[in-house]
């Protein structure tokens, strides 16, 4: 009779009590690993017996030959695949022999690490419907909910918003942990921010006993909460998003001189400069006659220009403080507008000549040639562009995509989990990389 032992039937206890010979079923890697620990190993059994021949000096026999052994046997199945082990047990049950069959991977005698699964295979589901729980009717938290809904809908997901959970949703995501009351688990995730008291911390710990994941807004918050005792495996972070609507602040460059027939003020330099500059980062305010044609050309190049073709003192004293930099590229002793710009605390990009030089700390950037003016302005442009670029990937689409990766992971869908590695560190990678 073949008897299949349960998890609690300790192999070593039964082996000691009966003193029977042991049969290792399987002659692969796990059989080799188990061999040193098993007692009285007298036989190795494998369907590939003719191919394998022997293991650790013991001949390998096919399963059918087990029937020729008249004594009681302790058979330990050392095969990793659960499906294959089921097939082996079904075949052993057909044999005429006296044997106690143990599952090496499912017996109390053998301590094996059990992979932690977020969901049972039977419960694994595709992510189709996300419900966002948001009680806020104002602007910041409501904005998170609405933007997420818009992006999810754009990607073909069903998404709803209300002040209470929807048990039918694949994921219930709470915009702010404060509104989460974990009565029953509904594949919940919560956004975490403003944990600034002991009571809030303890409340979060309680909530994460049920919630699948707490999603912080920064690495710093995630690491701090973990240090305070919040389970690290229940924490990740996704950086927040900006609306991509606000345009970069432009440098306002001012010119306050008129032109002359002999071109002593080098007015055409402005066109040369604009050829290399980005109109997203610069605008001009010009006061003085003679600039009409140049202003028209610069505007055609995409630059914003506020032009005053006559000198108006009242308008002038209002204009100067609105500048970021005062421009002057003439070599004729100096510009009086330079003095007014300094009085207003405005930066200057001017030629180092005349009384320009007699004012300590007056010149912000000194330039003698067109290439030098270009270089200064391009450096200013690059400085501001770098700031703008720093947040260019913090979009609502990316914010939602990172949530989708985390949600799919929580539902057991891990097929594309590493597709964006080395691109960003938040989202799913803050779930997996504990020590980064």
Provide a descriptive summary of the structure in words.
With 436 residues, this protein is an alpha/beta fold. It has helices at residues 11-18, 29-34, 49-52, 82-92, 140-154, 198-207, 219-227, 269-274, 292-300, 313-319, 336-343, 370-389, 396-410, 428-432, and strands at residues 2-4, 21-25, 41-45, 54-55, 58-61, 73-77, 99-103, 129-133, 158-162, 171-174, 188-192, 213-216, 235-237, 251-255, 282-287, 304-308, 325-328, 347-350, 365-366. Strand 14, helix 8 and strand 15 form a beta-alpha-beta unit. The protein starts with a strand and ends with a helix. Helices cover 31% and strands 19% of the residues. It has 14 helices and 19 strands. The strands form 3 sheets. It has a 7-stranded mixed β-sheet. The radius of gyration is 38 Å and the shape is elongated. The chain has 3 domains: 2-103, Rossmann fold (3-Layer(aba) Sandwich); 122-242 and 404-432, 3-Layer(aba) Sandwich (Rossmann fold); 251-389, Rossmann fold (3-Layer(aba) Sandwich).
Keywords:
31% helix, Rossmann fold, alpha/beta, seven-stranded mixed beta sheet, single chain, 436 residues
Report the count of strand segments.
19
Report the portion of residues in β strands: 15-25%
Which CATH architecture of the largest domain? Answer: 3-Layer(aba) Sandwich
**Count of discrete structural domains:** 3
Shape: elongated
Could you estimate the helical fraction of the residues in percent? Answer: 25-40%
What number is the mean pLDDT?
Answer: 92
Distance between the termini: 55 Å
Largest sheet: 7 strands, mixed
Uncertain residue ranges = none
Can you count the helices? 14
- Provide the spatial order of strands within the biggest beta sheet: 1-7-6-2-3-5-4
